Write the structure tokens for this entry.
Amino acid sequence: MLGGLLGDSCIIRRKPTHNAYIAITHSMKQIEYVEWKYNILKNIAVSPPVPYVVRVMGKEYNTVELHTRRLPCITEIYNLMGAREITHRWLDEITEPIAIAVWYMDDGCCYKIKNGYAMEFSTGHRNQNELDLLTSWMHDVFGLDGVKSYIPPTRPTATVLKIHRKQDARKFEEIIRPYIIPSMQYKLPTFRLGISRAGPMPSGSSL
């Protein structure tokens, strides 16, 4: 849950008298991923994943959603996160490799650079202090030294963390690989290298 909340999951508390719950929404193309999350969370899920059609600016998008029940333990997470600003207190609770693997499956990508592949997280609307905290946490907890943060000057809300050194990308892949589901394998450098040897990327694949 904590790894997902760094990524695409939302934590919601409708009223102060209600407990909080977590909502997970992905494209229908990622149904396997949502079902994987459901298998982990099914003891606290309201139901199996449910398809929805979302309308945004006149366009329809097929999505799939998973909600947990309202629970005191999730309210504790809600109180820990506050306004969802990255803090030491929040990151101190995230120590398991599966958490950073979920975050990467939610928000990560892999792409070719001159000497190999870089791995990158889209971190959304984060300020430099939050990016520095994330970088320090990735170093202290997972031993990743080559993580760099940047804020694109033309897109100041599109903050990014990048693992660009070959040895650090290899180390990070070793940490997360046991948790990466088959439909997300394309986000791993070793998988991309296999595709490069076999030929072009399959039609419809994306980073």
